[in-house]
Specification:
GO molecular function: DNA binding
Order of helices and strands: HHHHHHHHH
Protein name: Bacteriophage CI repressor
Radius of gyration: 24 Å
Organism: Pseudidiomarina aestuarii
Mean pLDDT: 77
InterPro entries: Lambda_DNA-bd_dom_sf
């Protein structure tokens, strides 16, 4: 087998393992095992490692493996944190000011595929929004549909039940359209 074939196989294996073959290290310092366990103890309120790991949703042997290898399996850690509703920002970058891209800052990817997905999502949003507008006595106009659809498009992975959010927007629009209310 030639050296080129060997190098190609090594590079392919590194990509599969999600490691760069360039040898460059990440500039971001992730917490080590000791720091991770400290933060996990704070979050879980547990002192025993086995209880902390159970809270995280993994077996106690996972910690033993991390300790033996001298590093943390961050994908397992992230899954456990998300399962418990913990902010990854807080856990991995508690003292950093992070940038959250706004929808206008995001570029388009695969426009042919995304256009179909966007149209499908738009139709689903309108199908959900229009009855809510009518239920709250709000005229179904381009402006009111746009407000509802904008809210619908902000939903990400059911973090907030989108139907509940749209019902709230519908109520808010109804109040706003009824004019200023006087408090008793």
């Amino acid at each position: 087998m030639s050296n080129d074939n060997i190098n190609t196989k090594i590079e392919s294996f590194d990509v599969i393992r999600n490691k760069s073959h360039t040898g460059m290290k990440s500039k971001v310092e992730l917490p080590d095992l000791e720091e991770c366990m400290y933060r996990l103890r704070l979050l879980s309120g547990e002192h025993k490692i086995s209880h902390v790991m159970r809270w995280l949703g993994v077996s106690a042997t996972t910690y033993a493996n991390w300790k033996r290898r001298g590093n943390v399996n961050y994908s397992t850690l992230v899954e456990g944190l998300l399962r418990n509703g913990i902010s990854l920002d807080w856990f991995f970058a508690p003292n950093q000011r992070l940038h959250y891209p706004q929808p206008g800052e995001l570029g388009e990817v695969r426009p042919g595929y995304d256009n179909r997905v966007f149209v499908d999502k738009t139709l689903a949003g309108l199908a959900l929004a229009e009855p809510i507008l009518k239920q709250n006595g709000v005229p179904v106009t381009e402006a009111t549909k746009r407000v509802m659809l904008d809210t619908f498009m902000l939903e990400r992975s059911n973090v907030l039940d989108i139907k509940t959010a749209l019902e709230q927007v519908g109520k808010a629009l109804a109040v706003a359209m009824s004019g200023p209310q006087q408090e008793p």
